[in-house]
Specification:
The protein has helices at residues 2-12, 17-27, 43-58, 135-146, 153-159, 259-262, and strands at residues 40-41, 61-75, 78-91, 95-102, 107-111, 115-120, 125-130, 168-179, 182-191, 194-201, 208-215, 223-231, 250-254, 282-284. Among the domains are: 1-31, no CATH class; 87-157 and 237-284, no CATH class. Helix content is 21%, strand content 38%. It has six helices and 14 strands. It starts with a helix and ends in a 9-residue tail after the last strand. It has a 14-stranded mixed beta sheet. By secondary structure, the protein is an alpha+beta fold.
Length: 293
C-alpha cells in the first residue's frame, strides 16, 4: 500500500521526506499500469476524507480565500506557473459568489439560484445564462454545457455532495504537518489521470487547509495547488449574489460545447482548478471593440 511504501522510504531518507514520497509513489510501478491496478487504499485515509466531507456538507454557509498556483502547459515539455487570488462564498443550497484576480486577469462569477453570471471587468464583457436550482447542479451544468470550471471547484463540489472517490487507485495517510501554523493531516490519493493531496485541519473543524492536484496524463504532469483560509461564520446576504452589469459592459453568450466534450464534466472525472476562468466558448452578442480572451 502507498502508506507502507512511504514509511519504508522515509526510514532511508529521513532528511528528504518529500523526495522519498515522490520516489515511493511514482517509481514503484510504471504509469501505464495504473488502469489495471487493484485499489489499495489505507482505511485511515478514507476515514479522514470522509470526516472532512461530512463536515463540509454540514456547513450552511462559508467563505474560502485562497492563494492559488497552477501550471499552464505551454507545450509538451514545458509548464508555465500562474498565480491568482481566489475568494469563494457559498450559501447552501443555491447561492455562490467567486472572485478571481491574478496573472490570468480578474473574473467574477455570481449564482443567485436561477442565473449564473460571469463578468470580465478588465475587458468589460459579461455573460448570463439560466442555471439549475442548486450549486451542485450548477457546477455540473457549467462543466458539461460550457466547459467552464469554477474557482475552487473541487472543494465546493465536495461541500455540495459531490464524490471524488470514483476510480481511486491508491491512497494513504502521510502524516502531520503545519499549514499556516495549523496542525494538519496530509492525505494522498492516486487516480487514473489525476493524483491529489489534501492537508486537513486536525480537531473539531476538519477543513482542508491545502490542496495539490497533479494531472498525470499530461507529459509535463502540471500541478494545481491552493493554500486555503476559511470563514465559517460567514452568512453573506442576497445582495452579494445579485449581478448588475456595470456601465459600458458588453454582453457575450456562452456557447454550448459539443456532446463529446461534455462527457468530461464533473460526473466523469474529478474536477479541479479554475483554469477555464477566461470563459472559453464565449461569443459576443453585440459587436465589441475588442475580442474576448
Amino acid at each position: 500500500m502507498l502508506v507502507a511504501t512511504y514509511r519504508r522510504s522515509a526510514a532511508l531518507y529521513a532528511t528528504l521526506l518529500i523526495v522519498a514520497l515522490a520516489l515511493a509513489w511514482f517509481s514503484v510501478e510504471p504509469r501505464t499500469s495504473r488502469a489495471a491496478a487493484t485499489p489499495e487504499i489505507d482505511p485511515n485515509a478514507l476515514a479522514g476524507l470522509d470526516r472532512t466531507t461530512k463536515y463540509l456538507r454540514s456547513l450552511p454557509a462559508f467563505t474560502i480565500s485562497a492563494q492559488v498556483t497552477r501550471d499552464e502547459v505551454v507545450h509538451d515539455d514545458f509548464n508555465l506557473q500562474r498565480s491568482s487570488q481566489v475568494r469563494v462564498s457559498v450559501r447552501r443550497p443555491d447561492r455562490m459568489r467567486a472572485e478571481v484576480s491574478g496573472d490570468g486577469g480578474d473574473r467574477l462569477f455570481l449564482y443567485d439560484g436561477k442565473t449564473m453570471s460571469l463578468l470580465l471587468p478588465g475587458e468589460k464583457y459579461y455573460a448570463t445564462t439560466p442555471a439549475p436550482g442548486t450549486v451542485r447542479e450548477t457546477i455540473d451544468s457549467m462543466l458539461e454545457k460550457h466547459a467552464i470550471e469554477l474557482p475552487l471547484l473541487d472543494l465546493v463540489y465536495i461541500a455540495m455532495g459531490g464524490d471524488l472517490q470514483n476510480k481511486m487507485l491508491d491512497g494513504g495517510e502521510i502524516g502531520t504537518t503545519l499549514i499556516d501554523g495549523v496542525a494538519c493531516t496530509q492525505l494522498a490519493f492516486r487516480g487514473e489521470k489525476v493524483d491529489w493531496q489534501l492537508w486537513i485541519e486536525q480537531g473539531a473543524k476538519p477543513v482542508p487547509r491545502k490542496v495539490v492536484i497533479t494531472t498525470t496524463d499530461e507529459p509535463t504532469r502540471p500541478q494545481y495547488s491552493a493554500i486555503l483560509r476559511w470563514d465559517l461564520a460567514a452568512n453573506p446576504p442576497d445582495g452579494q449574489f445579485t449581478f448588475t452589469p456595470p456601465a459600458g459592459a458588453v454582453p457575450i453568450a456562452l456557447a454550448d460545447v459539443q456532446p463529446s466534450a461534455a462527457t468530461t464534466g464533473a460526473k466523469k472525472k474529478a474536477p479541479h482548478g479554475e483554469k477555464s476562468n477566461t470563459a472559453p466558448n464565449a461569443k459576443p452578442t453585440a459587436k465589441p471593440s475588442a475580442k474576448p480572451e
